[in-house]
Write a structure and sequence with these properties.
mainly beta, Immunoglobulin-like, Thrombin, subunit H, 6-stranded antiparallel beta barrel, 16 strands, 8% helix, 39% strand
């Protein structure tokens, strides 16, 4: 296998710099921990220096250094990943690959206004945990022959079949809609209430996907993401997203995410 980092994205951060996200090959299974560093260089083949701290088992980092946005500089970025088996680097990228500089700064301003509204209105700082789609397979609950998950409450992978089961947490401003809950009738006529569902509005930093987990840090309630819709884009690059989520029962293993002593 070549580099396990199959894609590096650079998009507007709502702080003073850039935000970086990198995607791993689903077949990559080096033992954890995975230590990543974002690097900067004035040329694509020399002069690389680290601009981030060591990022352990996470795949998103936002720069807060305004000097990295300088129209007179030509900048190059990459991610260097180190495991117990080796060191790998991503492809080299310029910051304005997906959006020209003008549109990049427009997107950044849209993010800034979105965060300002969340701070001044009804937003909270929440956490997003991204369900693993790559990494070592869980050896505690996954059948080695069929690949079936034998324990949906596995304390090692949380029923995902990957270890770790989720990556994060990634903190972000979130605005929750009022709660809604439908009552459905069973065959015996007794009403059954469905779990509370919400819509959560947040900037695309990071992107969310279905089956990810949102944590309301004010109440410690956990929510599964059911659907994601982009509601603001600049030249087809998502800026703001709406997450449709439902509240998870307190018996779900995701309530152990982020807890001291959890595996």
């Amino acid at each position: 296998m070549g580099t396990p980092i199959i894609k590096l994205e650079i998009f507007p951060g709502y702080a003073d710099g850039f935000a970086f996200r990198w995607y791993m090959n689903p077949l990559f299974n080096d033992p954890l921990p995975w230590n990543s560093v974002v690097e900067l260089a004035p040329a694509p083949d020399e002069g690389w220096v680290a601009i981030s701290p060591t990022i352990v088992n996470q795949f998103l980092w936002a720069s807060t250094e305004p000097k990295y946005i300088n129209k007179d500089q030509v900048l190059y970025f990459r991610v260097r990943l180190t495991t117990s088996k080796g060191t790998y680097v991503s492809d080299v990228r310029k910051p304005y690959g997906d959006l020209p500089r003008r549109e990049f700064l427009i997107a950044k301003e849209l993010m800034r206004k979105e965060i300002l509204q969340a701070r001044s209105m009804s937003g909270i700082i929440g956490e997003l945990w991204l369900r693993s789609t790559f990494g070592p397979l869980c050896t505690h609950c996954k059948d080695p022959v069929t690949g079936d998950i034998l324990d949906s409450a596995c304390k090692y992978c949380y029923g995902t079949g990957r270890e770790p089961g989720y990556h994060g947490p990634y903190s972000a401003w979130m605005t929750f809609s009022p709660a809604s809950r439908d009552e459905q009738q069973t065959q015996d006529g007794a009403g059954v209430r469905e779990p509370f569902s919400f819509t959560i509005r947040m900037v695309v930093c990071p992107y969310a996907k279905d089956t990810d987990v949102v944590v309301d840090t004010c109440t410690d309630k956990r929510y599964y993401v059911d659907q994601v819709q982009n509601i603001a884009e600049v030249r087809r690059v998502a800026i703001v997203q709406d997450l449709t989520v439902h509240e998870a029962p307190v018996t779900e293993p995701i309530y152990r995410l982020g807890k001291i002593g959890s595996v």
